[in-house]
Write a structure and sequence with these properties.
By secondary structure, the protein is an all-alpha fold. It has helices at 2-42, 48-78, 91-108. The longest helix has 41 residues, at 2-42. The N and C termini lie far apart (55 Å).
Length: 119
């Protein structure tokens, strides 16, 4: 009976991993296209405000792509088949990008966002 339960749990984990992989592919395809098009838009003649909006679209889509990757990684962790990679990062840039993504909503609510990162 314990063996049957383990087999069912393994099958459920496998099905979930396949589902997450499929959904992540379905999300990545249009998001990648939006990233590419918004990046192309930044190379065209636009007003400074339009350029800023295009960059915002690009950064937000990239953030969603990273989130999709994180969800897929979590699924791989559960299935015990993940390889960790070491990448350099700058905390200040990460915080700045995060604040830029929410700055419009914060501004609408009359909130000022401030960052202070010690390097």
């Amino acid at each position: 009976q314990i063996r049957e339960e383990k087999d069912r749990a393994d099958a459920a984990t496998s099905a979930k991993s396949e589902f997450v992989a499929h959904i992540s592919h379905e999300l990545r395809t249009p998001l990648t296209q939006i990233v590419g098009l918004s990046e192309l838009l930044t190379y065209t003649e636009t007003t400074p405000l339009q350029h800023e909006y295009a960059q915002g679209i690009n950064e937000s889509c990239n953030a969603i792509l990273f989130l999709v990757d994180d969800i897929l990684d979590f699924s791989k962790i559960e299935a015990r088949c993940i390889t960790l990679e070491h990448r350099p990062y700058v905390v200040g840039e990460i915080v700045e990008n995060a604040l830029e993504m929410v700055s419009v909503r914060a501004s609408r609510k009359n909130l000022n966002l401030v960052q202070q990162v010690s390097e």
